[in-house]
Amino acid sequence: MNYSKIRMGGVPEHFNLPIHLAHELNEFETRGIEIEWTTFRGGTGQMTKALRNDDVDVCILLTEGIIADIIKGNPSRIISNYVTTPLTWGIYTGAKNSLQSYKDVFEKKYGISRFGSGSHLMAIVDANSKSHRLEEDQFEVIKNLDGAIESLTNLETDVFYWEKYTTKPYVDAKILKKVGEYVTPWSCFVVAATDKILEEQPENIIRLLRTIHDRCDKFMQNENAVKMVSDRYKLKEIDVERWYHSTEWAIHGWVSDKMVKSIIYHLRLASIIKNNEVIPEIIWKR
After folding, report:
1. What is the Cα–Cα distance from 49 to 62, expressed in whole angstroms?
2. Tens digits of per-residue pLDDT, 214-240?
3. For residues 265 and 268, what is the distance between their CA atoms, to the nearest angstrom?
4. Exposed site from 32, 50, 51, 216, fewest CB < 10 Å?
5. Does residue 168 sit within a domain?
6. Whole-model pTM?
7. Does one domain contain both 220 and 252?
């Protein structure tokens, strides 16, 4: 059988386990698709760049990050929700940093994976929601979680936003200190694809989505899901249990126009996009 290859990518985090399971169980191949997976440790900013450069066809990435980048010219579209519940961002500093209180972070130096990444955008949106404005010189690019740990430990930066449960082992080990949390006011992860792959392989993209949605449905019904995540990602079962029971995956491709509108509102409010910026077609209408 000749398989149609689709290059796909995402972060090395537990949210993407349903896709890895579908891959390992040959569920994509059953529908005539070969998946070539790339892990992006640099997060959403690294993935939007890969989509722009045609280094990847499909990515699982933060909703606000891909919307901002599509508006700025990324030739891609959102093709489905992926995780429909909000993301809880932990707000961290180095274990030896004198910073203690969440209310004091907004004057500090921020480590971000990239400009336009979730760690950058959510810091701005969070500050803005509390009547603070962050300046560009407050941000320093540290590439990924490993870079953040090094930068925070060396007191080169003071604040870093990253997914709560991915970073918890570093808090438990007293490498990082958590000073707060921020919950996104929208669904956290979506599936996005380049215009090129949507034009060339629309039917295969639909098959890809059906495979992802079917496996997400099975994953949410799997009694062993918590232990599986704990074992694979070296997270404590009690932490995975809390995460799993506050997380829901999409089982269909519908994306809310209102959610997109709300995100654009916040991006404008935070001056991430301009008020007069032309809004292109963001959701793939199939």
Report:
1. 13
2. 999 999 999 999 999 999 999 999 999
3. 5
4. 32
5. yes
6. 0.91
7. yes
